[in-house]
Amino acid sequence: MQLRWSRMMPQLALAPAVAVTFVAFIGAIGWTAWLSLTRSRRVPEYEINWSEWTRQYERLFNDAGWAISLHNLVILGIGSALAIVFGFILAAMIDREWRGESFFRTVFLYPLAVSLIVTGAAWRWIFNPQLGLQNFLHGLGFTSVSFNWLASPETAMYAIILASIWQSSGFYMALMLSGLKSINTEIWSAARLDGVSFWRLYLEIIIPMMKFTFITCAILLSLGVIKAYDVIVAMTNGGPGNSTWVPAYFTINALSAKSNIGYASAAAITMLVITALIFLPLVLITTWQQRRANGGSR
Amino acid sequence: MTMVTQAAALEDATNASPGPRQPFFPRKKKRIPGRSIAILLFLTMCALFFCIPLYVVVVTSFKTMDQIREGAIFSLPHVWTLEAWDHAWNKACSGINCNGLKVGFWNSVLILCPSLILSIALSIITGYALALWNVRWANAFLFLLFICAFVPFQVIMYPLIRITAAIGIYGTLWGIAVVHAVLAMPVLTLIFRNYYKDIPQEIMRAAIIDSGSFWRIFIEIILPMSGNILIVVLILQITSIWNDYLIGVTFGGLGTQPMTVILANLITVSTGVVAYNDNMAAALLTAIPPLVIYFLVGKFFVQGITAGAIKG
């Protein structure tokens, strides 16, 4: 009896989690995938006409709004990657200099504690053309400066990138700092004895040693970029026009504003494919390298 | 702002005096403080950049609209007034309701409590069972959870709306709370499982031989050992649930929106005169709870977000 219970109970205890996984994740992905092949609009339809099952995807890839979304996704990804660079520079400097470490860490990380809606609100106010930073700079005499980025379709995306760099560099700094701290202190003294220059030390020794940290950061960054939604809503709400649409925004817009279930599903499934395309290679590289680093003991 | 400059000045002053290190190389003694000053100067400038939004938001929230119209965004308020804070808390409008952010605040609290209990209860037991009991399909299931942790919310959004509607919790506080718990489950389970897998098998064997059942071992041995990880997960969950916007706006009904949604409605409204001081006060009110947690238990906060992020 005792033995049977000890074998049954763990599996019973896992039942809720298994149910959640199969209903809310796998089932739901399947549901969305199915809907993306149907003609569903406001009301879901579950009949698939196999002669034209790709119609939602065909429409999607002919949609100028979706093209803008994908384009912005790439821009946002490249721009936000600066947060990793910036985070590494901050971490390296904090690590080199022992004074004020906790103070600087606290200051650089606080943006992460607040909601992206709050971040968006703050930056939206700074970018306000009449009363914000532009006005202040004009008052100082820099009348040629234009800081009205949010109003123009060409620059609105850069404003969003600036806000997301502000929000997330502290986080990459924290990850990099723990990576730097795990580096053996003997390397620093050995490098100093050998007279290795500052740049060579970082470019040829430290950064290669931290490649796992960098890959982790890259994975997290790309996931964050694909999921970026809140900051867009808070700063531009997709505008001006649809110049700051991203796939996450496009999908929800298709579902709520246009109430087109099939179309939104097709966009969502494409988002999932993009995630997998970025994420799987990076994870495979990491596990493969980790196994090799472990000396093939597995 | 002043605090930052003061601290910077203080640090510059300490740099000016020669450091006690490396007394045998008088040449280097001069070079190292020079580099330190450069580094500290750079870090201070970065710190100033990071503080600009907070400073601007704080001073704006204490200004009157008359002063804001003057357009000096960085100036201190002529008259410090709590008017905007009062207005944001009591009278701010979200759609047609003008009951202020306080409605959203209490909604957020009411979402937070059941959601924390649900998500932690569900994932701590799952993590415990997967890490310490011999379940044959544990590894396969863990891999599945790992994949689930990366699925963008949009992919499962519509089915979740339909499921919550079918259960009858769509548009209620419970709906938001349950969806939070469901979405957090994979990541939290992985965190708990990674924490428990380092518990030696001998302890578990001894406990089982002592006729400990699944639940008794959990309550008498495992739970008392989980203090640290519980704090980390608690902070991770409190901040992510409080700061969430997307789930709140998708699953919230008219009167059940969390604070972030009301704030977003407030700042994106484009009709009439925009009261920037109200908006900034509202933003601060929304930001205060997680910021308080951050400044009180910063170390656990960092652990929480890095653990949550690395695993998910």
From TrEMBL, chain A:
Residues 69-284 form the ABC transmembrane type-1 domain. It comes from the Bacteria. It is found in: Cell membrane. Gene3D superfamilies: MetI-like (1.10.3720.10). Keywords: Cell membrane, Membrane, Plasmid, Transmembrane, Transmembrane helix, Transport. The keyword Transmembrane applies. The chain crosses the membrane at residues 12-34, 73-94, 106-126, 156-180, 201-226, 263-288. CDD domains: TM_PBP2. SUPFAM superfamilies: MetI-like. The keyword Nucleotidyltransferase does not apply. Pfam families: BPD_transp_1. Its main location: membrane. PROSITE patterns: ABC_TM1. InterPro entries: ABC_transporter_permease, MetI-like, MetI-like_sf. It is a multi-pass membrane protein. Belongs to the binding-protein-dependent transport system permease family. PANTHER family: ABC TRANSPORTER PERMEASE PROTEIN. This is Sugar ABC transporter permease.
UniProtKB/TrEMBL annotation, chain B:
Coiled coil: none annotated. Residues 105-297 form the ABC transmembrane type-1 domain. The keyword Cell membrane does not apply. It is a multi-pass membrane protein. The chain crosses the membrane at residues 37-58, 109-133, 140-161, 167-192, 213-239, 245-269, 281-302. InterPro entries: MetI-like, MetI-like_sf. Belongs to the binding-protein-dependent transport system permease family. This is Carbohydrate ABC transporter permease. It comes from Rhizobium indicum. The lineage of its organism: Bacteria, Pseudomonadati, Pseudomonadota, Alphaproteobacteria, Hyphomicrobiales.
